[in-house]
Amino acid sequence: ETRTLTGVRLYVFAVIEHTTRRIRILGATAHRTFTVLDKTGTGTEGKPVLTDVQPVGGFDETVLLRLVAGAEADSEHPLAQAITAGVRDRGLRPLAATGFGSVTGKGVQATVAGHAVLVGTARLLGDVGIDTTALAPVAAALAAEGKTPVLAAVDGRPAGVLAVADTVKDDSAAAIAALQRLGVDVVMLTGDNARTAAAIAAQVGVGRVLAEVLPEPKADEIRRLQGEGRTVGMVGDGINDAPAPAADDDGLALGIGTDVAVVAADITLISGSLGGVVTAIRLSRATMRNIR
Ligand code: ADP
Ligand code: MG
C-alpha cells in the first residue's frame, strides 16, 4: 500500500513538473520567443477546395481533371483530397491508375489510363526534366491570389495547372497581432510555394516566411531559429506537421484542434483557433508572476 502511495505521489510530482516546465517556457520573457506556425490548418481552416483548372497546350479540361484525379486517388495529402472531391463535384470520375507513388513534399506520380501522369510542384516536374515554362506564369498568377498551384504533366509534357485554396481563419490576423503585442515573433513555416505562402502571410500579418521547406529540413529550420537564442513554440494541427521541437530543448509544441493527431503536442488548444495561443501565453505569464 505504501509503495502504491509513493508511486502515486511520484506520478503527481512528475505531472506538476511536466506542467510547470511548459508554463515556464510559454511564459518566457518577451522578445525571446518565436512562434512557428504551420500554415495549413492553423492560420487557415485546413479545408482546401479545388478552385481553378487551366489546361495548357490545348489539353482537354475534362481529360486533364480525370487523369489528375486518378493519380491523386491513392494520396492521403489534403491537397489530393481537395482535388479528387472537386473533380467528383464536377460530375467526373477519376480514371483508373496503377503504379502510384508519392514524392514527399512534392507530389505524386502514377500511370493513369496508360499515361504517365505527374502532379505536384514545379520542382517535381523539373526533377525529371520536364520544361515548365508554359506552366510558370499560370502558376504564379494563382499563387499571387494565395492559392496553391498544382502542376500536371502527361507523358512528359506540361498539361495544365489546377489551384487549391484554403480560407484564412476569421480570427487569425487578430491573434497574430496580439502575439506580436506580447513580444512574440511569428514565423510561418510551410512546404507550400513561396508566392502562395507570402500571399497568405500578408493576409494574416506574418512578416517572416520560410516556404518550400521539405518535411525533413523543417526540423533544421526550427533548430536554426533556436540557434538565434530564441524559445521556439511550434503551432500545428498535428496533421502532416513539421517535427516539433521538444520541451527539453526549451521548445514547445502547441496543438490546435480536436483531432487525435494533437495528442503528440505538449499543450493542446481545443478551440482550434490561434486566439488560444494568445490566451495560453497570457495565462502562463500571469502564473509565472504569481509563482515568483
Ligand atoms: P505543407 O504540409 O507545409 O503544406 P507538404 O510537405 O505537405 O507541405 O507539401 C508541400 C507541397 O508539395 C505542397 O504545397 C504541394 O505543392 C506539393 N504536394 C505534396 N503532396 C501533393 C499531392 N498529393 N498532390 C499535389 N501536390 C502535392
Ligand atoms: Mg503538411
TrEMBL record:
<protein>
    <submittedName>
        <fullName>HAD-IC family P-type ATPase</fullName>
    </submittedName>
</protein>
<feature type="transmembrane region" description="Helical">
    <location>
        <begin position="260"/>
        <end position="283"/>
    </location>
</feature>
